[in-house]
Amino acid sequence: MEGVMDKFVSIHLNRTSDIPLYIQIYNGMVQLIESGVITCGQQLPPIRRMASFFDVNTVTIVNAYKKLQADGYAKSKIGSGTYVSFIGKKTHLGEFDVPIENMISSDSAAESVYVKKDGFIKFDFAGASISPKYFPVKDFKEVINEVLDRDGGYALEYQESSGYQPLRESIRDFMKAQHNLDIPLEEIQIVSGAQQGIDIVAKAFLNYKDVVYVEAPTYPGAVNAFKSRNARIVEINMQEDGVDLDDLKKNIMSNPPRLFYTMPVFQNPTGYSYSIEKKKELIALSKEYDFYIIEDDHISDLYYDEKPSALKALDDSDKVFYIKSFSKLFLPGLRIAFLWVPRRHFDKIALAKYSSDISTSGLSQRILDLFLRKSLWAEHVSHLQKIFYKKWQETVKSLEKYMPSDVSYFYPKGGHFFWINLPQGIYSTNLYYEALKNGVSIMPGELFFIEQRPSEGFRLSIAQISEWDIEEGIALLAESIQSLIDNPHKVFQGPNDRPLL
Amino acid sequence: MEGVMDKFVSIHLNRTSDIPLYIQIYNGMVQLIESGVITCGQQLPPIRRMASFFDVNTVTIVNAYKKLQADGYAKSKIGSGTYVSFIGKKTHLGEFDVPIENMISSDSAAESVYVKKDGFIKFDFAGASISPKYFPVKDFKEVINEVLDRDGGYALEYQESSGYQPLRESIRDFMKAQHNLDIPLEEIQIVSGAQQGIDIVAKAFLNYKDVVYVEAPTYPGAVNAFKSRNARIVEINMQEDGVDLDDLKKNIMSNPPRLFYTMPVFQNPTGYSYSIEKKKELIALSKEYDFYIIEDDHISDLYYDEKPSALKALDDSDKVFYIKSFSKLFLPGLRIAFLWVPRRHFDKIALAKYSSDISTSGLSQRILDLFLRKSLWAEHVSHLQKIFYKKWQETVKSLEKYMPSDVSYFYPKGGHFFWINLPQGIYSTNLYYEALKNGVSIMPGELFFIEQRPSEGFRLSIAQISEWDIEEGIALLAESIQSLIDNPHKVFQGPNDRPLL
């Protein structure tokens, strides 16, 4: 609960005011709830704890909580406490820019910190970032102290814009040893997370009204970076073995792209991976029609079958910008990824990086460097592979056991996303609300399409949930699906028929 | 010397190769020098140390160093060692994009780490970031361990995009207590350093071909962010009491701006500050002609006279985006600043931040938060004020004592930059090379103008130099200036007459 209380330090009580203390606390909490700092489904701290935190009588807190309930901000659950029941700014589903906020919230620590097992959201299949319980905090502390003892104040200085040289070297060595990729040192640009990598390539290469192709569905953060460059965005259908080549070629004829954004391995949100044939074809097309490719390798380390290979490995004409995130599996708070930049484009990218934030935190870079050098990264990944493979097996088993027969799904060969398709006409945004009633959260498919069009598909993520909660969560989810199928009046008809919040 | 050796880990010896080891080491070092990883003026490590590092005979290192000297990459100084004498990529002065690299190198730790007091550059008046020797590493270590003990894995999770809530609160409280500014919590956006703040405002508000005004001279990093948005940039002359209003108004008539970028307090590079009248006039103009202002508060905490006040304090119509850096005085490696965003623009800025890098390192944010809460920041700033005021006095005294009479300069009321003007027709780029011969480095003025036009002005920074080195450094600099005045054939005539490197 330590972290929970952090949220409330913004509430300052004025003990000389005429406004009753319980109203002051109520007002502060309403602000936190409406702004989405505290999100729907979060359990509020126990009465006693809040009373001691604010140094007030327990009755004051009871009254504040009662008023929250009376005004529709919270619900009480017998025997287990009070929960936020108001969907604030961050969990509102609406026009395109807003669900991005939604993603932030779900992809961030915020939810996972507060959602307790006995809380409103008991089964979190929405969160995309791995639960902090898997982070090797002890190793991390040792490494950070070692860095500070070794480098002193220099660990806290500005870093070269292209990155801390020893980290670039340890990344080169790591990529050779773990992924059999030979990356020349001078082609490695350190960036502050994969999102910045995408943003920087967009900055360096997109001109006004340039066309960018993305997979459909795709990661909305990337779409946002392209939109911020005033790009025109075109969706190309995604299939289980990679992008739909017919759709791609048809579009190229009429509207050739400057850039193609892809996640060829365990795609977000589908978990699909490209076949070797499709990779080759994509590279061939990039040469023939002269466009660049951003390859976003968000989680290829987390494989359960054979080790996946990068699209970039096939790139023989400097078309691919490869981005590897170190945040997805490990320590997202460090904000580190790297860009493998074709040499001839390096200066352009370096300038775009410099104008974006000068350099990535030198301290974070030194920490990751030492992690790689001590082989702690490889150790950690192999540990996670075991944990996630078990979760994957549990998910597969539960899907087979509980899902209605006309629901279809795909088993990814790695990562933590499953893409599930409901029967035709049953939209997943409706399922989102229906499942929430059972304490189950998922990511509705519309978030992953640029026009937010209603989708039968949804993303089921096993990043946050424990192995032993999967079966129960999927059983409940299947119940919600069945209930939607059985009650056609609940069926979401389209964008004009969205349930109001 | 610990950090120095880091540079050489990229040199991998192949002991079974036909290429002699000393040539392999030589080749590796040439690459490091040419790419600017090791920069001109840096002392190379002692022979014995290199020999033990590479596990080779000392003769091997002697031969490698000799070859470096023979080929013009290094110079030996009797009694004090071997120094790099080749100006690599990062210290090359050329077209606009390149000097930015130069700034990176000078503003970064890279130089300061390696330039020893007995080295080639003995008097560093170029570096803009405060020497790491002033960083409170012990306090930092305590704070970081406290954060990790308190928050565990959650300290390493994704953060809310707008920033870690407790940090936003401690910034609000700090700005109230230290700067008497009332900043509503919901108008604070945490960013990864001031450069990102500038870039994000540009991203949110600049459209294709929009006009941006900058002060002349100005900070080139900002210019770069605007260029990356395809903005048209117009320079407005800077005067000792702020921007030249006549020049500003004249330009507004013909070519009104969308955005005006200013550093109203202790400007970089001049040290000039706006008078209250000019601040009021600028605000009035922003209302009348409907343009936005970015106020870059890079170092207002470091004042020697009265406490400066922010332009933003006068903003009564939501025109000013105020950016405060926490990197300039303290821990640049943390990469933290904040943006004070007029409420009505907050969502736009939040989205631009999200699409840039999702969120700023949660660990860095938690560290800065605890620093502010423990009042360590205020303590540190007051300590720095004392140190820098002494350096400032020493600089003023030395300028009076040594500068030729036709050199003019300005005494800033804070910060660490002095702007010095050479006699007409004596360009500071020439002085840069002349002074380097005396082991003195400065920042030539042309770097701070958008067209890189030759300038008689230059920036003298006391960020890196020790109090006791200032007098000698300025005496030597004055000698170089006198030598340029006395030898007109050395005088730089313009862009077509640049000295070749």
Automatic annotation (TrEMBL), chains A, B:
Gene3D superfamilies: Aspartate Aminotransferase, domain 1, Type I PLP-dependent aspartate aminotransferase-like (Major domain), Winged helix-like DNA-binding domain superfamily/Winged helix DNA-binding domain
SMART domains: HTH_GNTR (SM00345)
Entry GO MF terms: DNA binding; DNA-binding transcription factor activity; pyridoxal phosphate binding; transaminase activity
Domain HTH gntR-type per the UniProt entry, residue ranges: 19-87
EC number(s) reported in the record: 2.6.1.57
One Pfam family cited in the UniProt record for this chain: Aminotran_1_2
Key words, A-Z: Aminotransferase, DNA-binding, Pyridoxal phosphate, Transcription, Transcription regulation, Transferase
Residues annotated as transmembrane: none
UniProt cross-references to CDD domains, sorted A to Z: AAT_like (cd00609), WHTH_GntR (cd07377)
Record PROSITE patterns: HTH_GNTR
Family: In the C-terminal section; belongs to the class-I pyridoxal-phosphate-dependent aminotransferase family.
The protein, known as: Transcriptional regulator, GntR family with aminotransferase domain
Organism: Tepidanaerobacter acetatoxydans (strain DSM 21804 / JCM 16047 / Re1)
